[in-house]
């Protein structure tokens, strides 16, 4: 079995691990800290006895919390950029990871909209939690906590904190949490098409937001993984984990870290078949089980997760959260309070 994205030089052991994980249906980008699917085994020793998966109770509770968060505030999160309407080529006819549904290339027409200039930061999210008392899905699932004790305030478990990284992206937030935040801020999640159009920054047919070369003139343009995964993270780009949300040069639309740093939730349901017909403001399938995430993360390397490209995509269930998955919001009009 070939690892997605091509992996000529991978050691045999890593290939074997990959093959096992793929066979087990794990997320192929091999992200060890990623939340499992929506139906993990209950925490060892943790006896909730409820028999529900992580989404059990969570889904309904999240809906309740989301409803509670609605209408409780207007725009109070990071600055937005006006993205001009236009037509662009979404996806690619030269997919690097064909099973992700990167193709076909298709013309998509979008109305103008606004996009957060950067990923939602810990500070942004704390302002939201302070104002609403919102509990994230992970924090609201007590039986889940003993597994690692990780949540947005304690990204690596109970002994960790975010005090010295308030300007880093918020982590361990589910799709439902992201929707709650954007709604509170007077915004919404971007569609996959809006996200990809934003990523391309006005360039056509390029791999990355800045062009086709990963490191023009040797410079790093995104926070990804350098070194041998998973044993040796050399952090050549300056960051072993997340970076501040405004690190690295912005793209043509003035957007930071649109690829790399953390994956970003979009509003679309996941599917891998797409019509080649031109579309106008597409919003994806009307239903599904997973939501589309875009942009790759600080854990991505070409050898196993070549997904820090604008056309690349992956998915998680809406109640999943992970140490490398965040979001940014979009809007049709600027919220009243910036
Ligand atoms: C949230 O509330 C705490 C406690 O009042 C305060 O110290 C902190 O600065 C607030 N955070 C933000 C982002 O406003
Ligand atoms: C990690 O990779 C760097 C650069 O290739 C190398 O200098 C270093 O010795 C490696 N460290 C380990 C623990 O393998
Ligand atoms: Ca890095
Ligand atoms: Ca990102």
Automatic annotation (TrEMBL):
Region annotation (Disordered) ranges: 31-54
Record domain Sulfatase-modifying factor enzyme-like: where: 80-330
Organism: Anas platyrhynchos platyrhynchos
Keywords: Signal
Subcellular location: Endoplasmic reticulum lumen
Gene Ontology molecular function: formylglycine-generating oxidase activity
One cellular component term from this protein's GO annotations in UniProt: endoplasmic reticulum lumen
PANTHER family reported in the protein's UniProt record: FORMYLGLYCINE-GENERATING ENZYME, SULFATASE MODIFYING FACTOR 1, 2
InterPro entries: CTDL_fold (IPR016187), Sulfatase_Mod_Factor_Kinase (IPR051043), SUMF_dom (IPR005532), SUMF_sf (IPR042095)
Signal peptide stretch: 1-26
Protein name in UniProt: Sulfatase modifying factor 1
């Amino acid at each position: 079995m070939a690892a997605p994205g091509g992996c000529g030089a991978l050691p045999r052991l890593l290939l074997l691990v990959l093959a096992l994980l793929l066979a087990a249906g794990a997320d192929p980008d091999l992200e060890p800290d990623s939340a499992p699917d929506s139906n993990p085994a209950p925490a060892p020793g943790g006896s909730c006895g409820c028999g529900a998966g992580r989404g059990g109770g969570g889904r309904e509770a999240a809906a309740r919390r989301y409803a509670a968060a609605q209408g409780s505030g207007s725009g109070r999160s990071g600055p937005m950029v006006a993205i001009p309407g236009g037509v662009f080529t979404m996806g690619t006819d030269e997919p690097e990871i064909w099973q992700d549904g990167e193709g076909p290339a298709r013309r998509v027409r979008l109305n103008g909209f606004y996009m957060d200039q950067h990923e939602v930061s810990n500070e942004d999210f704390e302002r939201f939690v302070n104002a609403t008392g919102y509990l994230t899905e992970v924090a609201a699932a007590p039986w889940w906590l003993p597994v690692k004790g990780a949540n947005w305030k304690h990204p690596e478990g109970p002994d960790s904190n975010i005090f010295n990284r308030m300007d880093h992206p918020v982590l361990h937030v589910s799709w439902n949490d992201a929707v709650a935040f954007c709604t509170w801020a007077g915004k919404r999640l971007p569609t996959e098409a809006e996200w990809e159009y934003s990523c391309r920054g006005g360039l056509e047919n390029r791999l990355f937001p800045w062009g086709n070369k990963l490191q023009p003139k040797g410079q790093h343009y995104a926070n990804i993984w350098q070194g041998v995964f998973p044993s040796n993270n050399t952090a050549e780009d300056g960051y072993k984990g997340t970076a501040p949300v405004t690190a690295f040069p912005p793209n043509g639309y003035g957007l930071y870290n649109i690829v790399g740093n953390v994956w970003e939730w979009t509003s679309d349901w996941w599917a891998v078949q797409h019509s080649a017909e031109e579309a106008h403001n597409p919003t994806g399938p009307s239903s599904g089980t997973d939501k589309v995430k875009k942009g790759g993360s600080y854990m991505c390397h070409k050898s196993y997760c070549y997904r820090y490209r604008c056309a690349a995509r992956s998915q998680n269930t809406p109640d999943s959260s992970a140490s490398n998955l965040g979001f940014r919001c979009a809007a049709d009009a600027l919220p009243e309070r910036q």
